[in-house]
Amino acid sequence: MADGKPASIKDVARLAGVSEQTVSRTVHDSPAVRPATKEKVRRAIAELGYRPSNAGRALRRGRYMALGIAMGNISETGNRDRLEMFVDAAAAQGYTIALLKMDREEPLSLGQAADRMSSLSIDGMIYVLNRTPEDFDTFVPRAGLPEVIISMHDHPACPTVDSDQEASARAVVDYLVEHGHTKIWHISGPSRSLAGVARESGWRSAMLDHGIEPPQVIAGDWSPESGYAAGTLLADKVRSGACTAVFASDDAMAYGCMCALSDAGLSVPGDVSMIGADDISSAFVPNCQLTSLHFDNSAIAEWAIGKLVIPERMADGCNHKLFPGHLVERGSVRDLR
Asked: Is the same domain home to 32 and 46?
């Protein structure tokens, strides 16, 4: 408006020559308003730049129809995929998403994230954890606001859900052993990453269960560059027969490793087998041949959103859920049997 103040419902009613109730009914597309009147009200709304009050709508509905998601490192491909699944699951229930990015360089605190998110007009909160918050065990959810934590670990006061990273990594080793491999190396994720630590633990425990002494882990950081560095280190191991298979903790490192091995004159799967994790490369690699662990982010998102907005899900008594991953077999594993 000319005076700089936002237009009100009274301003729209005055310009359109109708009652405030008619404006409200038009905003909600009520059939009780004649089409010609609706058009007149909509022209007034457009001219004044009127926006309906979220607070007023929330008061009528008893909810804001919005959910908060707090997560860090959104630029990572796996997190982008997760975020898309949450947006889709929320939209399926008629909700929108408010996003809070948690600084990955600062100490992670659920309490601080909750304080920031609870000031927004939202009906529930989801915390997506890539690392352990300093207050994970002591965190108390905000009264009257349902909350879900995306974590492999059970929480005493808040529902939790995630992929079963450790069991999935064990399945990778089982699969490779079934195909005749015993010299299986691992490129790990960052040491503070919950998924990276769980995948390394699953690889190590499965190796020991098969009576195989695990070789030294090669540390990565999720990037293809760290995978390339790992592949450079592994080239001589492959040539000597000390490495017949590599389990990389994500697809980016797997492809980096494959590039380094190729530059060293070695091929996958001819000279060494390769398995990645997250199964994201098929989205941008033509004729993708990498066998990879696939995690059902859609199921995780639907479970978490359901816990926040569907009454029967909120009261079903299931407060910790781990979804199994599964191997998508392509062409990067050689059978040595």
From this structure: yes
CATH code of the domain containing 186: 3.40.50.2300
CA torsion sign, 133 to 134 to 138 to 144?
Answer: negative
Mean pLDDT check: name the lowest of 7-11, 117-121, 195-199, 295-299: 117-121
How many CA within 13 A on the CB side of residue 256?
20
Are 314 and 146 contacting, i.e. CB atoms less than 8 angstroms apart? yes
Q: How many CA atoms lie within 13 A of 238 on its CB side?
A: 24
Give the single-character DSSP code of 313: H
pLDDT confidence of residue 273: 98
User: How far apart, in whole angstroms, are the C-alpha atoms of residue 226 and residue 206?
Assistant: 24
The verdict on residue 331 lying in a domain is: no
Q: How confident is the model at residue 281 (pLDDT cuts 50, 70, 90)?
A: confident
pTM: 0.81
Residue 207: what residue type?
A: M
246, β-bridge pairs:
185, 274
Locate the DSSP E strands across the chain: 66-71, 96-101, 125-128, 147-150, 160-163, 184-188, 218-219, 245-248, 273-277, 291-294, 320-323, 326-328
Domain that holds residue 118: 64-163+297-323
